[in-house]
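Lecture 7 notes: from sequence to structure.

We start with a single chain of 370 residues. Read the sequence below before looking at the structure.
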Amino acid sequence: MPLRPPAFPYSRDAELLLPSRRRLLLAAAAAGGVAALGLPPWLQAHAAAAPARAHDWDWLIGNWDVHHRRLRERLAGSDEWEEFGGKSAVWSTLGGLGTVDDNLVELPGGRYHGLGLRAYDEASDRWAIWWIDGRNPTHIDPPVRGGFDGDGGTFYGDDTFKGKPITMRFRWHDIHGAKPWWEQAFSPDQGRSWEVNWRNWFTRTAAEPSPLPLLPGYERDFDFLAGRWKVQHRRLRQRLANSDQWDEFDGSFVNWPVLGGRGNVGDNVMNFPSGTVRGVGFRAYDPARRQWLSWWLDGRAPTAIGAPLRGGFADGIGRFDGDDSHQGRPVRTRVTWTNITERTARWSQSSSADEGKTWELNWVSDFSRA
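Now the structure, written as tokens:
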């Protein structure tokens, strides 16, 4: 029998209800616990467990030296292993319901950078883990999904290897010990058999994360954005509906470099009129096209990462364009960075429903360095 866990049901309607449900649970906790809501016991248990997920990765936050042991040839009947070193830096995002880990790996063939992004989905009570290979920064690998039980965690996902479908399995061991370790395995037969092909052992070097060394000559376009910021937002209440009503609210933002400087990550807190919203923006540089790619992960819908915007900077202005959707119809999205100084920056977003013939400005964010 396959060893993969059963699929979890997913409902877009349920996803849309998540922010209000979280607010309800937090209010209940403040008033004396979830039992006061009169929920059935199984739902009380889930509601009580959900806030604790914000601490699932506390043990991994910080900087690490990493010892790697990797099978030289995967799914080829090989028993030859190679060993090498590396470093990792791990930050908390999304109020603890997400993490970002930046990795430097001293592969035998040369230094390698990679970026991992994790996010928790309350609806399925699972974490998703995505990966960006610094050698191919235009592509995000399919996620593995799972969670923790005791002193370990297990995560499964589907991918391809040399053109053939495989099942992936990630396992964390001894996560509360002095030397946690990670293991990757592939299955070519839907979980009936597994080949372990990579193990990492982690030794902590710092409790607070700090960026890993930057590459010589890295692209410095986003250097201005590193650090902590206060943000004033102005957002059109309804998009592409001829509206002239705007909401204004504040927020905060923290940005740091990853991928040796060829990427950066921004953790966003936005105090919407309806409640606090969190999101993570992350960018990677594509040297083949000399463009940046920019992705967004919304903390209210943390199961998927949308298509990126693409673009770059010229004459002190950044412009990024891409395909999107709004209320089920395709639109174009454009983001610009202007007013860039040591202490200020402005981010603006516009949408087009006619393939770029006309544009509607719908969001302006003014950054001031904290």
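The first strand starts at residue 62 and ends at 71. Keep this in mind for problem set 3.
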